[in-house]
Amino acid sequence: AKSDIDPDGSGKIIGFYDNKKVGPGWDSGSTWNREHVWPNVRDGDKVEDDAHMVRPAAVSTNSDRGSKGYGSDSYDPGEFVPYYRGAAARIIFYAAIADTSLKVVDYSFPYNGVSGGNHGYDVGTMGSLSEMLKWNLQYLPSDTTFTGANDLARRTELNRNEVIQTASGGQGNRNPFIDHPEYACKIWGDTNDKTRAICGGQVTPPDEPDDPLPPDESHPITLNIESKNLAIGESFDLIATTLDSSDVNWVYDEYTCEILNFGTFTTRSGEPLKVTAIKNGTTTFTATSGSNSVSCTIVCGTGIYPNDDGKNKTSVPLPLIIGIAAGVVLIAGVVVLVVVLTRKKKRA
After folding, report:
1. Which of 61, 155, 263, 283 could be cross-linked to 254 through a Cys-Cys bond (beta carbons 3.0 to 4.6 Å apart)?
2. Distance CA 100, CA 81 (A)
3. Preceding peptide of 315 cis, ω within 30°
């Protein structure tokens, strides 16, 4: 009745998640009950007596949440009032500091709180960390531009932080994440790529879709050739270069070339891949870095032989050489025969 009192003066208390005005008297859970923001089935009972963690909630709303984790694939605490995404995240962060055996993690699949409550996740964990870090920065207690239901939820969060610290019979402490939302990124911001992106300032504004980096900007990659002819036994250094000096993964489709240093199927940016033609045919090589790929073709052997100067020349197949020689001989024979017959005719 003190910490969650309606700041607009109705005398009611403000229900978590939906701002329903209930109570304030306790009626044994008929109209409102205690919402354990960190569910007991997830070891929330370790901080069950902490006023910062337990909130009043309308019975139906509390039942809908159950013991689900927070996140777009589990339970969205901002389904009714978006601001509660930030408020819920700050309570979870507080609980993980109040009892350090509790861990905030990124869920790799939905947690729905059924089947005994664990559903594949370690007891004592809550998530989704990356989404809560984002919500914490999107819905700031200091943002006075919120209006309506969002502003009511914001003012209630600020009021209860004061009351829990200062009111008679209160705990005498504050939730530091309400006073300093930036603390969350200092503690958990380096957990993974998602958290680093969010805490690096790349936070999506509320109600706007994520804007992933276009593929052609994520890992630019180029090859030193588009196509190449190689004589049998001839070698060439195929080189892929990336702007960020990342690893390059290679595949090729035909075994007409021998790859001398292809054991790991990976090179560094600018490191040569030595290709040697071993039989006739065409091979396509594809280099991939991140989400980008680039390909080239190498024609191996067919009609190609090296000159003494190292340059390629087109060869003439042996059957064609024999045919040409036979034709020359035949033509020469006909010429000789014509000459002989002409001389005999003149003598006659």
Report:
1. 283
2. 30
3. no
Total residues belonging to the chain:
348
Which stretch of DSSP H or E encloses residue 320? Answer: helix 318-347
Question: 295 with 285: CB under 8 angstroms?
Answer: yes
Q: What is the pLDDT of residues 63-106, one digit of tens each?
A: 888 888 898 888 999 999 999 999 999 999 999 999 999 999 98
The continuous run of DSSP H or E covering 228 comes out as strand 227-230
User: What gap in Å lies between CA 38 and CA 218, rounded to an integer?
Assistant: 38
Torsion-angle region of 313 (φ positive above 0: left; ψ -120 to 50: alpha; else: beta): beta
Cα 128 from chain centre: 15
Residue range 8-31: mean pLDDT, rounded: 93
CA distance 257 to 149: 68
- Residue 121's alpha-carbon distances to 44, 93, 106, in angstroms, are 14, 18, 11
CA distances from 292 to 193, 220, 246, 283, 286 (A): 19, 7, 12, 20, 10
Sign of the CA dihedral running 325, 328, 334, 337: negative
Is residue 17 within 8 Å of 81, Cβ to Cβ?
Answer: yes
- H-run or E-run covering 267: strand 266-268
In the numeric block, which tokens belong to residue 324? 């040409």
Nearest to 330 by CA among 338, 319, 341, 318: 338
pTM of the model: 0.58
Confidence of residue 112 (pLDDT cuts 50, 70, 90): low
Strand partners, 299: 229, 282
Exposure string for 9-20, b = 16+ CB within 10 A, e = fewer? eeebbbbbbbbb
Count of beta carbons in the 10 Å neighbourhood of residue 327: 10
For residues 2 and 78, give the distance between their C-alpha atoms in angstroms, rounded to a whole number: 24
Q: What is the DSSP string of 139-174?
A: S-TT-TT--HHHHHHHHHHHHHHHHHHHSTTS-S--
Buried b (16+ CB within 10 A) or exposed e, 187-210: ebbebeebbebbbeeeeeeeeeee
Report DSSP state, residue 205: P
